[in-house]
Amino acid sequence: MDVTHVAEVITPTQFWMGCGIFVVALVAIVSEKIEKTKVALFGAMMVVISGINTQKEVFHFEELGVDWNVIFLLIGMMVIINLMRPTGVFEYVAVKGAKIGKGRPLPIMLIFATITAISSALLDNVTTVLLLAPVTLLIADALEIDPIPFLIVEALASNIGGTATLIGDPPNIMIASKANLDFMDFIINLAPIVVFMTIVCLLITKIFFKGKLTAEDKNIAKVMSMDEKEAIQDPLMLKKSLAVLSLVLTGFIFHSKLHFEPATVALSGAALLLLISSKVKTAKDVHHVLAEVEWPVIFFFIGLFIMVGGLVKVGAIEMVSQKMIALTDGNLFATSMILMWFSAIASAIVDNIPYVATINPLIIDMAKELWPNLSGNELLHHPDLMPVWWSVALGACLGGNGSPIGASANVIVFGMAEKAGHKIGWGQFLSYGIRVTFWTVSMSTLYVCLRYYTFA
Amino acid sequence: MWKPKRRRVEIMGVPVEKIMVPIKMVACLNRKMTLRQADEIFKQNGSTVGGEVFPLKGTVVLDEEGNLIGIASMKDILKIVIPRYVQGSLVGITYDEQLEDRVAKVWDTELVEDIMIEDVKVVKYNDSIMKCLEIMNEKGFQRMPVVDDEGRIIGMIYIRKLYEYVSSKAPVNGGVK
Q: Tens of pLDDT along A13-36?
């Protein structure tokens, strides 16, 4: 749907209303006075009631409303993970990892960070830390050491790892859908730098903590006395879910060749696992599994998409994108550098989901201004535009490490630590978080410069 | 203006007051006691059967003025020994001496106020024994504070006391009339 022609019928009242709804909602979300899902949903319905967009537009045109590909990809993955979680596979891997590390603190820290990074790339960050944090606390108790550095390192690793793939972090899911990028595009363009950054961060962690983490031999023996097999609750379901997960990951790798959207792959996996799960039989079981989907997150996305659709319709996005082109004089190298750092800082301060939801249409509009004759993938995948997408993805995902509230994984780790009696201070997190954000975004900047501009 | 004369009518059956243990006979805890001190109170006030000591299983927590502020039991002490992060598939993954470590950690540091249940369900002195029986069965309680009209604690009712009362009401001769 072409947006520019719509702008003609927009009255100034509607323009200010569209912007007003968005700004008021954004302030309410950032202030955290009212739960963000309530704000987003109310704002979204105001967009429809005030007549900026019709219900048909918000439900059926992804430029103006809900991006169902994002919604159902999230739901599909959540269902798969909810079915997989009780099998105990995560706890098994973690305890096994601790024993491979011979029960010594530093190797355990590095192994846990690696597990977190890989798991966050393939699943979601929140689930990963939610399952790994309790194991970390258990191991730290056995070793009689402070778990806080471990937990912080895990939160940071999960945000870095999540950057690597399409499904790793919500900003990537949103960018992939808007820019029509597939799973392999992310693997080819983002995974190399993420792997490199992870290795560098592990090395720095190793040097930084060398000699600082010590445990007594008798406590190390305690870790070695743990039996990871105790974690496995349901071996049959474990095999089934690992099989489905492998199918889903294979499906992601080939989704564009097979002409399937990622949401189709995820939902198919979810449906298959529901069908073959021995634990889900009655309507009540199905209800239970589906009720565990993070509905507040889903409705937050729905609300945001509709509100941003309002901004698109009233022409606010178009206006800002013209300003941005004027600012950088149409120089996309400058644009991508500015966007990378701006995204990182913005994501550290506010939730990166509303940020990316807003920046996506802005980039598309900018592309339309620059290449008015192109459309579809020719426009979205214009060689000059691609680095901009990758810069936003890197900035928005890695920026999450910049503050305790920058990413959901950080918030979870803070909550779990406090519940277990180990309160993490903001300063404590920031002393690691800001540095890691700065290093990783700097490495990303260098990567984008070299790969897409110097050697392009 | 005519007012109905207030009088207590025993239409609700036998009041719980009749079988409660008066508060001055009850060993109580205060909120700043450690688990070790609470444990001593439990042991000192238990009963001895055949030479074996059965500690008190739980009791009320009172403030300096004798007001009811909570209730704590053996179960609450046992619960605190389980680390708070243990959940889901982590249940069962233990290590050597984990229990000893946990007990050593909590015994002198955790206070009664950390483990007590603050939202205490109470019965009034004139509530019927049947009502009391229903509540304790429904909630699985072993003991419940009894309060007066102003909500001040005046005694305790125990499942054992209820049982004694119930069994004393059993008809003789197997109910054959």
A: 889 999 999 999 989 988 888 988
State how far the Cα of A420 lies from the Cα of B80, in Å rounded to an integer: 11
What's the confidence (pLDDT) of residue A149?
93
Residue A150, SS3 per DSSP:
helix
Which of B82, B95, B115 is the best residue to mutate to test the A interface, defined by the most A CB atoms within 10 Å of its own CB? B95
Q: Residues A181-232: pLDDT tens digits?
A: 999 999 999 999 999 999 999 999 999 998 888 899 999 999 999 999 988 9
- This prediction's pTM: 0.83
For the ranges A3-17, A279-293, B97-111, the lowest mean pLDDT is seen at A3-17
Structure tokens at A299: 């409705």
DSSP three-state, residue A292: coil
The answer to whether A419 contacts B89, with C-beta atoms less than 8 Å apart, is no
- How distant, in Å, are the alpha carbons of A309, A390, B32 from that of A386? 23, 7, 64
Q: Does A223 reach chain B within 8 Å, measured CB to CB?
A: yes
* pLDDT for residue A233 is more than 50: yes
* SS3 at position B144: strand
B98 and A222 within 8 Å at the Cβ level: the answer is yes
- CB contacts of B82 in chain A (<8 Å) are none
Residue partners of A348: CB distance under 8 A and separation at least 6: A399, A400, A401, A402, A403, A406, A437
* The token pair that represents A398 in the structure block: 């890695």
Contact A141 B84 (CB under 8 A): no
Count CB neighbours of A218 within 10 A.
10
Helix, strand, coil share (%) of chain A residues, nearest 5: 75, 0, 25
Prediction ipTM score: 0.72
CA–CA distance, B57 with B72 (Å, rounded to integer): 9
Point out the residue among A92, A221, A420 whose CB comes nearest to the CB of B85. A420
Chain-chain contact of B93 with A86 (C-beta, under 8 angstroms): no
The whole-number pLDDT of residue A3 equals 47
